[in-house]
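About this split. The held-out portion is used to measure sequence recovery: a designer receives only the structure tokens and must propose an amino acid at every position. Recovery is the fraction of positions where the proposal matches the reference. Here is one held-out target exactly as it appears in the evaluation file.
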């Protein structure tokens, strides 16, 4: 009898501890709450409230997907990358620098859009020594091209990273700028030039 009581107490303890660690999540309720949280969002932004397959898998696994899922994400996202028709991945670093510093676009005050979107790279990365204020969610990109010897394969990797960050790193916190149509191919080329050109302030 006594052992049954103890077992019951232990069991109750385990259940409540588990309940504390992992509260039941009703994803339908979350979806409804998110949709209702932005009542003034323009209709063309609404589709962004629906998670795509990659976001769903990342959410389920709290951004640490098992290997098979991670491989599937990388393959899926890589297939979404579009390249410049002429094969040239390097644009103009000066335009890239302006884009990296600009957080314009996709904010409520930017609607309807009056200017092209920026990349907001400084919100997450250090890019030049001169910059005093930058975010640190992403690694510093100081001397990014220099330490990679301005190589062709590395330039391609940088293009792919900016176009679709999850093709390189599943469940990355970096936005998928090209795939989500935040930036154009031309803009991405300018940003690649910013990190990969010898004369860019990133590599000085
Ligand atoms: C919301 C934060 C965030 C923003 C905004 C962001 N990044 Fe990133 N970036 C990251 C993180 C985090 C990583 C580290 C790898 C990963 O998790 O994907 C990264 C990695 C990178 C890498 C590869 C670094 C390496 O070690 O090889 C490059 C290149 C890069 N970012 C460029 C950019 C550019 C250019 C922009 C602007 C268009 C940008 N990032 C905007 C978060 C961000």
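Reference sequence for scoring:
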């Amino acid at each position: 009898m006594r052992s049954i009581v103890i077992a019951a107490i232990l069991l109750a303890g385990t259940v409540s501890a588990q309940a504390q660690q992992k509260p039941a999540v009703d994803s339908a309720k979350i979806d409804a709450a998110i949709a209702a949280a932005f009542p003034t969002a323009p209709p063309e932004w609404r589709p962004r409230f629906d998670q795509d397959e990659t976001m769903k898998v990342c959410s389920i696994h709290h951004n640490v997907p098992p290997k098979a899922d991670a491989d599937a994400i990388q393959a899926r996202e890589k297939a979404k990358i579009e390249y410049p028709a002429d094969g040239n991945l390097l644009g103009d670093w000066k335009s890239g620098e302006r884009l990296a510093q600009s957080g314009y676009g996709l904010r409520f005050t930017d609607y309807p859009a009056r200017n092209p979107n920026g990349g907001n790279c400084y919100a997450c990365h250090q890019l030049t020594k001169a910059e005093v204020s930058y975010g640190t969610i992403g690694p510093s990109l100081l001397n990014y091209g220099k330490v990679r010897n301005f190589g062709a394969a590395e330039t391609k990797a940088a293009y792919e990273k900016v176009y679709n960050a999850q093709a390189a790193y599943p469940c990355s916190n970096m936005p998928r700028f090209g795939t989500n149509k935040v930036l154009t191919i031309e803009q991405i080329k300018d940003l690649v030039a910013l990190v990969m050109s010898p004369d860019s302030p990133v590599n000085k």
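Annotator remark: The mean pLDDT is 90.
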